[in-house]
C-alpha cells in the first residue's frame, strides 16, 4: 500500500504517468494498481462529436497513425494502436473515450481532473461538450467524486462555465497557466474557478499565499522528484500531478 492510496493531493498524470501509455484505459488501471485514486487526463472532440483522450494535436507521438487528430471519426480512432509507442506490453491498446473513463471513475470512486485540450479552433465547442457530458454523468452518479474540469484555454473554460450556468449545475473548474501572473488569478475568479493549476517551477510560498488569499486551490504539474514534492506539499500546495507512480511512497 502506498501513501497515495487515499491522498487526494496526488494525481496520476495522463492516467498512469510514465508507467503506461498516456490517456488510455490501461494507464488508469496502472495508476489504480499503484495506489492512486485521483487521475488527470486530456480530453478532446473527434470529428463526429465523441469526447476522447489525447494530449497532442496530432496522432504522431502516441499512436501508430499520423496527422492531425481533429478530422478523425471515433469509429476509426478506436482502431488505432495507442499502446505500442510506449512498450510492447501495451501493443494494440486503443485510445480511451471519455465515457469509458467516466465508467472507470464510477467503478472505483476515482476523482478525475479532465483537462479540456481542444483541437485548434475547437475551444468553445470542446468546453461546452465536456461540461455538458460531465454534468449529465454527475446527475447519474451522485456518489462519485465530482470531476474537476481544467484547461489552458480560457475560451474552453468560458464555454464550460456558460454551459454549466445554463444547466444550473455546479462543477469545479480550474484555470491552467504555464506562467503564473497575478492576472491569472483575476481570470480564475471571473470564471468562478475552484483553483489554479500551474507548472511547479512557478510555485513559491508567495504564490501559494496569493492564490489561497483569494480562496482558490493551487495545484502543480508535473512533479517527478520526491524532494520537490515534499517541499511543495509542506509549503501548502493543494495537489500535484506526477508521472512517477512510485513517488508518493518515497516521501
Ligand atoms: O493538467 C496538468 C498538466 O497535464 C498540464 O500539462 O501538457 O501535460 O497536459 P500537459
Ligand atoms: Mg494534461
Q: Helical region count?
A: 8
Q: Please compute the radius of gyration using only Cα atoms.
A: 17 Å
What's the number of domains? 1
* Beta-strand content bin: 15-25%
* Ligands bound, unique: SN-glycerol-3-phosphate, magnesium ion
Largest sheet: 8 strands, parallel, barrel
Instruction: Report low-confidence residues grouped into runs of 5 or more.
Output: 1-5
Tally the beta strands.
Answer: 9
Secondary structure category: alpha/beta
At the fourth level of CATH, the homologous superfamily is Phosphatidylinositol (PI) phosphodiesterase
Query: What does the oligomeric state look like here?
Result: single chain
Distance between the termini: 14 Å
Offer a quick outline of the entry.
The protein has eight helices and nine strands. The protein has 251 residues and is of the alpha/beta class. The protein has an eight-stranded parallel beta barrel, surrounded by five helices.
Description:
This protein has 251 residues and is of the alpha/beta class. It has one domain: TIM Barrel (Alpha-Beta Barrel). 33% of the residues lie in helices and 17% in strands. The protein has eight helices and nine strands. It has an eight-stranded parallel β-barrel, surrounded by five helices. Strand 8 (217-221), helix 8 (226-235) and strand 9 (239-242) form a beta-alpha-beta unit. The longest helix has 18 residues, at 123-140. The radius of gyration is 17 Å and the shape is globular. 45% of the residues are buried. The chain binds SN-glycerol-3-phosphate (G3P) and magnesium ion. SN-glycerol-3-phosphate binds next to strand 2. Magnesium ion binds next to strand 2.
